Please model this.
Amino acid sequence: MKKLLTVMLAVLMLLGMVGCNNGGGGKEPTVEHYDVVFLADLGSISDGGFNQFSYAGIVDYCKEHNLTYTYLQPAQASDDDRVTIFKQAADQYQAKVLVAVGYLWDAALVQCVPEYQDKQVIFIDADDLATVDLDYDGTSDGIPGKLGNVAMITFAEQDCGFLAGYAVVKDGYRNLAFFGGMAVPAVIRFGYGWVAGAEYAAKELGLEPGSINMTYWYSGDFNETPEKTTKVASWYQAGTEVVFSCGGTIVNSAITACEATENGKLVGVDIDESGKSQRIITSAMKSLENTVYNAVKAAYAGGDEWAAYTKALQTLGAKEEATTIAQTWDRFNSFGQADFDAIYAKLAGGLHDELPVNSTYNDPTEMTLTYVNLKYEN
Model:
């Protein structure tokens, strides 16, 4: 009888342990504790893009090292709600590493980071928290002094935008559009590069001035809506051949519009989106998963490895092999690996510096263009 009770008790204890599963993977927490917490940007954690693939870097590292992990999303797109989930991750979950994605986190981090010097914070698509100007009045509202517990990482999105614009023009397309979500710095840089790449390719090809028609529009958010589908459909009906869809689930609106046409094409963003539609000929990609993985790895390594991340804002582009396009050459007419290798070598070798995107708020309307006829829509 005593043996039977012992067996039953062991079974109950095992069931109790299974009930503690956090749903994220890694080792099971015995209390409400997670080693790494992902603080999401706008949109869904399963958006098939920026949030999802950034989070995947955390999942990869934590599974390899038997660490617990989870994610939090702000209830609303407000600084107060971001502060709330930061403190939840730091206090309630006792996270060692917090990974915040999206430049909209800047105000919340400026408030929270000085209070939580014992936490290692990774800020992806970052503004420089030491010099950030939150109210755009020309005066810094940032954190004075060295931020020894914060890794600030951003991308040169203009590089992969450039590669996409260059590739489609070299492939024979002349009527293009940029379909952006919110006019935030990363989206602006993608668009700037897209226009610059088209301009550069047209010059190389010796086209006539004004040969490339470019419609350019920011939708104001990152959500799929029927209204966005109607907007993009109107471009295709007017002769647009390729649309660069740049921002979260708006790509679904673009796909619906595109697939209703006979020959319309799309360019995806952030990750290789070719699996979402046969009409997506390539994607302007950032190395999100690897970048987050490496930053979390550095946070756990500490010492010089972590210090290298916290010295200053890091900008990763073609030179660092962090920005590229999906090499889906079978979806192009003629552009292929050799063409890509040649332009990538130029971009990584110094052409990047000729793209004057020094301010995060540069806009294509500020560019001097010869070959691209830019039509900016409200």
